[in-house]
Amino acid sequence: MGFVIDKLNTSASLLRLALCLRIKRDAVNNRHEYLHFFISPEPSGPPQDVKALTKSSTSILVKWSPPHELDRNGIITHYIVKYNVSRGTEANISTPDNSTQILVRPLRKYASYYFTVQAVNKIGVGPPSVAVVNTTFEDCEFTTCSE
What we know:
Layout: E1 2-4, E2 21-26, E3 32-37, E4 48-54, E5 60-65, H1 69-72, E6 78-85, E7 91-94, E8 101-104, E9 112-120, E10 132-135
Antiparallel strand pairs: 1-2, 2-3, 4-5, 5-8, 6-7, 6-9, 9-10
């Protein structure tokens, strides 16, 4: 039995879908049989319904829904939340698993933050969600808010 590696598809996004390995088996009667194995790519769609909920003067809870089922391309292992203050340095935080929310802290008091979320599977990182923005509280009294 011999093995031949077929070419990696390279045109458009569909061709990113799979690395196709062609296994060629020569039978006694010189017939060829081919088996194709496909490796799913990184998620092709972003997380949905992203929300940023201010919790305190130094924290914002970011929540979302997973990408549409057909856009996941396998099991989502975790998410990356990227955030920045308007015209500031970007930072990121990852969920420890495929949780669909994370409390981002410590943040600056009374500052507006922009958030995007990306899904990750075993192959790679998907596209970012639509950005959402929210502002931390100016100050937090113990009687009016909690972490």
